[in-house]
Specification:
The structure holds 3 protein chains of 3 kinds. Chain B is an alpha+beta fold. Chain B contains 15 helices and 16 strands. In chain B, helix 2 packs antiparallel against helix 3. By secondary structure, chain C is mainly α. Classes of the chains: A alpha/beta, B alpha+beta, C mainly alpha. Chains A and C meet through helix 9, helix 10, helix 11 and helix 12 of A and helix 1, helix 2 and strand 2 of C.
Chain lengths: 454, 471, 92
């Protein structure tokens, strides 16, 4: 029997009913990975042996009825999240052989929960461009869920591109300790899964305050993020900002998201027309802030302590050679641009303006959330055409806004185009409002029937 | 043309914390290479700095004793540059919102203004003499807590600079902020110095880096004044540059780096949230500051009757002053304890037989020794000898006195027979005394004491001698 | 972008480019700069911008020293000498 297409929630029931052992389940996934990964390259590294032995080890917990939500359930983890003793390359030649001597905070939590790591999901170099690669494994059933990272939208884009559900939690919900930093003030870890309910289950497991990350907030109210699952949308106030439905968004995407809004309205949600003016600068502000932080964060890669070691007679020559050889051209461009906006003469014009804009955007969102519970937008302005060269540099204002505002945002599929490709819509919540947006996304997923749209 | 030197200082002081400023590694001095390091202070990917609470408390204390304003909102910035002793390739420091601003230190009537004090991390150590081909990096020191005290250019000669640094050092020691051990690099100083005719705008400045003794500060300033004066008087022009001082030659030399062209691209560190300080928190920290030297000085001179000069010596160094106070707990006779510290203890220190930071005896043992001398348990003249033996043997004063036979034994029969002998052997002085020449008493006393050394107290000898002379 | 600016950025980034690639890279850099330059139109008093997220004294780490990582684990991703990281000899 093939269980690889099941949700996390169903897998729990399946394992607990002992239809299959954790080890057998793990083997099913590993088989599939063996067949498909060579072409798909969804995994940068597969940890088959470790996976099987940890699956075996947690079986006793399942047998004793002591399993927690993720015990025995396999997972993929982005390769920019540190895993002790396992190569963590961050998708970079610079760290091709790097073996971290420690686990990320989220990995410690997942290990405690008895998860089974199948392997490290391939990422763009230091997650520079936020491409949707990290969703590939989940989309074809090589893993029931993946732990992704989102700086300017990678999780949400992956969800939109592959017809999945992806959650970027509020900045600070999930510890960044052990996530190789690209842009520290924007990076967050979150789940990519098949449903909003799965995302809620996973967030329950990875949300904890971590003293090693000063921005970590955790879950002080001990919220259950699944509390809104299957409860409908009656009474929820959903704001629809006009800036996200202008000329810069393709027609089919706009139509699909508006249609979805109407479905939610029909089921008892209240729609509010609003405006978030400053989001017109969101992509630029994101680009400036993230590059500035990245230029500094990536300075530690000089080949001295770890990583690709270049050649050279002097210190300066050697580290320059390390960086020339270790970084790809997109990363180099970001570093150079980051140093440009931070240098004397440009700092006020670019970096300070971008920071001020970020605060303005936050203020606008705060204002909206005084009268709304959710902001509904397309996930990507041009649906799936995200990999054109221009797009790769220029962050999408749709996803960048929530990142800049540090707000939680879930993307779920709201339509399929005539060519069969999915369209994603994003539900942004107030700070720490994950339960509410997951509630609405879950409801939509339960109501949504793709047949009706094609 | 009279040229006036203008000097500003940047003093780096290492804070007395148990752990580093952004990770939990030990902040102890030294250690085998890279044994006090973790992925955090070694800049591994994914690590995030985690600010040390005590470090913040200590810089607030420093700010308080140096009369600074303490910011209610303070934040950290990244100073970006590549150097192999700096594993992240940026130093976490404070440029835009330092903890302390606008302070001053009084040197007599004069005030030296302090522009700001900020909290930052130290860099690692580079070792150049272990390998002919390579330099080696040891990150034990990387991430140690430092404060940087930046003065306004209010200093005008080497003497003032040294007094200022001494004063800062003492204040930081008193406040338990920094141990002040310059030989371990716990306090180091950069000197900015320029020369200009009186009333003219400031001249071109040179920065002399990393001076780690009061003596080198003085020598470096003297040399720079000499060098810059010569250059100006020759009609040549000075360049703004960073220089290094050589202890061996007593000269400064240009470091020939691109230091001055450097753009550090400072920006707020996105890993470290700004810190908001409440008045109540600051008040609690202020309240925990120990008694400062001025207060002790007043107590020593007013209550203890110690001379101004001695009080200055005692309070000039926190370790010494603490030692004095601890000794008083054993023997509450401030003048006696002070006298023995100033005449004997400090002599031994100056002869480099002992170090104040690591004395081979406790303050209470020292107090006990003074007590023996001043209560006639031993001869006062023997105190020096006992102290020397305490240094050599690390024994307690009690066992030194026991083993060395210093105890005064009260044998009255012996006293009488010795004095009888003295009277018999000195008929002339005895006759003089009996004729009313009181001053010869001292001579006779001396003769008797010499014989009775360690066997009778001076009081007993005096009493017996008087009795016999009269009888 | 002029060559001087470009060289300064290379220096700050410790990255260099072969002559043949420089022009192309400069052009690509210019395209981001043009794009991002839109923020200059935004009129604001940038000096007043305060960061929203902040922490309190009690949120900070208590000052207790913990065990460091054994050097052999720390140095496992490089070839150390005398338990130190190795760089070409620096001229003092």
């Amino acid at each position: 029997m093939d269980f690889t297409q099941e949700t996390v929630k169903n897998l729990r029931a399946i394992l607990d009913s002992r239809k299959i052992s954790a080890e057998e389940l793990c083997s099913e996934y590993l088989e599939l990975i063996k067949t498909m990964n060579p072409d798909l390259k969804a995994f940068a590294g597969v940890t088959a042996e470790e996976a099987l032995s940890s699956a075996k080890a947690v079986q006793s917990r399942i047998n004793a009825g002591e399993a927690s939500a993720l015990t025995g359930i396999p997972a993929a983890v982005n390769d920019n999240i540190m895993t002790e003793g396992l190569i963590t390359s961050c998708g970079s030649k610079m760290l091709a052989d790097f073996i971290p001597p420690y686990d990320a905070g989220v990995i410690e939590l997942l290990k405690e929960a008895g998860y089974v790591l199948l392997g490290k999901a391939a990422v763009d170099e230091f997650s520079t461009s936020g491409s949707p690669r990290s969703g590939a494994a989940v989309s074809v059933g090589l893993a029931p869920y993946s732990l992704g990272t989102d700086t300017g939208g990678a999780i949400r884009r992956a969800a939109a591109f592959y017809g999945l559900t992806g959650l970027r939690p509020t900045y600070g919900r999930v510890s960044r300790f052990g996530l190789a930093a690209f842009a520290s003030s924007l990076d967050q870890i979150g789940p990519i899964a098949k449903t909003a309910e799965d995302c809620a289950i996973i967030l329950n497991a990875i949300c904890a305050r971590d003293s090693r990350d000063a921005s970590s907030f955790g879950n002080p109210k001990n919220e259950d993020f699944t509390s809104g699952i299957n409860t409908g949308v009656k009474g929820l106030k959903i704001a629809v900002p006009k800036e996200f439905f202008g000329d810069n968004v393709s027609e089919d995407v706009k139509t699909a998201v508006i249609e979805s809004a109407k479905i939610l309205e029909k089921q008892g949600a209240e729609l509010i027309d609003i405006s978030v003016e400053m989001t017109r600068y969101a992509a630029q502000a994101f680009c400036i802030i993230s590059s500035a932080e990245a230029s500094s964060n990536l300075s530690r890669y000089d080949g001295v302590n770890f990583g690709l070691r270049g050649e050279g007679a002097t210190y300066a020559e050697q580290i320059e050679d390390s960086r020339n050889k270790g970084f790809g051209s997109e990363v180099k461009r970001r570093i150079m641009f980051g140093n440009f906006v931070l240098s004397q003469g440009n700092y006020d014009d670019y970096f300070q303006k971008a920071r001020a804009l970020r605060q303005k955007i936050r203020a606008e969102y705060d204002e909206i959330f005084k009268s709304a519970d959710i902001i509904l937008t397309p996930t990507v302005s041009n649906a799936y055409e995200v990999n054109t060269p221009a797009r790769r540099v220029i962050a999408d204002f749709c996803t960048a806004s929530a990142s800049l505002a540090e707000l939680p945002c879930v993307s779920t599929t709201c339509a399929y185009k005539t060519n069969g490709l999915p369209v994603g819509m994003s539900l942004t919540g107030r700070k720490y409002g994950e339960a509410t947006i997951l509630q609405a996304a879950d409801f939509f997923e339960r109501t949504f029937n793709p047949e009706n749209f094609s | 043309m009279k040229l006036i030197p203008t000097i500003g200082l940047e003093i780096h002081a290492e804070l007395m914390t148990a752990s580093k400023v952004f990770c939990s590694c030990s902040a102890e001095f030294g250690g085998n290479p890279n044994t006090r390091c973790c992925p955090g202070c070694s800049a591994f990917p994914g690590t995030i700095p985690s600010l040390n609470k005590k470090a913040v408390e200590l810089i607030i204390k420093a700010g308080a004793v140096l009369n600074c304003e303490i910011s209610r909102l303070t934040a950290w910035d990244r100073k970006n540059y590549f150097y192999p002793d700096l594993p992240r390739a940026y130093q976490i420091s404070q440029l835009f919102k330092p903890v302390c601003t606008n302070g001053f230190v009084a040197l007599g009537e004069k005030r030296i203004r302090i522009k700001q004090i900020h909290l930052e991390e130290d860099a690692g150590k580079l070792i150049h003499d272990q390998s002919p081909k390579y330099s080696l990096a040891d990150y034990n020191r990387a991430g140690m807590c430092l404060i940087e005290i930046v003065t306004e250019p209010d200093i005008h000669n080497a003497e003032e600079a040294c007094m200022f640094v001494e004063k800062i050092r003492a204040m930081l020691q008193y406040a338990d902020v920094c141990n002040g051990r310059m030989e371990q690099g716990a306090l180091r100083c950069d000197v900015n110095i320029s020369l200009a005719p009186e009333g003219a705008p400031l001249g071109v400045r040179a920065e002399i880096k990393n001076l780690n003794s009061i003596r080198s500060i003085a020598r470096a300033i003297e040399y720079e004044i000499h060098r810059q004066t010569e250059t100006i008087q020759k009609g040549s022009s000075l360049i703004q540059e960073t220089r290094r001082f050589s202890d061996a030659t007593g000269e400064t030399f240009s470091m020939r780096t691109k230091e001055n062209a450097h753009d550090y691209r400072y920006f707020p560190d996105p890993d470290i949230p700004p810190l908001v300080l409440k008045d109540s928190e600051l008040e609690a920290i202020f309240a925990s500051i120990p008694e400062m030297p001025e207060k002790r000085y007043a107590r020593y001179t007013n209550e203890y009757g110690i001379t101004a000069n001695d009080a200055e010596i005692l309070t000039g160094n926190k370790i010494l002053s603490d030692f004095f106070e601890d000794a008083l707990k054993e023997y509450n006779h401030p003048k006696a304890v002070c006298a023995f510290i100033v005449t004997e203890l400090l002599r031994r220190v100056n002869l480099e037989e002992i170090k104040l930071e690591a004395l081979p005896f406790s303050a209470s043992d020292f107090g006990l020794l003074v007590k023996y001398g001043y209560t006639d348990k031993i001869n006062r003249g023997d105190m020096k000898e006992v102290l020397r033996e305490m240094i050599n043997s690390s024994n307690s004063p009690e066992s030194v006195c026991e083993l060395g036979g210093y105890w005064i034994k009260e044998d009255l029969g012996l006293v009488e027979s010795v004095i009888d002998e003295v009277i018999k052997n000195n008929p002339n002085p005895v006759a003089q005394y009996r004729n009313g020449e009181q001053k010869v008493f001292g001579f006779l006393m001396g003769q008797a004491s010499k014989e009775l050394k360690g066997k009778a107290t001076p009081a007993i000898i005096k009493e017996t001698l008087e009795k016999k002379l009269k009888g | 972008m002029d060559t001087l600016t470009f060289n300064l950025l290379c220096e700050a980034s410790q990255i260099s480019f072969p002559e043949a690639e420089k022009e192309d890279f400069m052009r690509r850099l210019d395209s981001i700069i043009d794009f991002a330059g839109a923020v200059k139109q935004f009129d604001c008093d940038c000096s007043t911008g305060e960061d929203l997220g902040s922490v309190r004294l009690d949120d900070l780490r208590e000052d207790t020293a913990a065990q460091s990582l054994p050097p052999e684990k720390l140095l496992a991703n490089t070839q150390p000498l005398f338990n130190c990281y190795v760089i070409p000899k620096l001229m003092e």
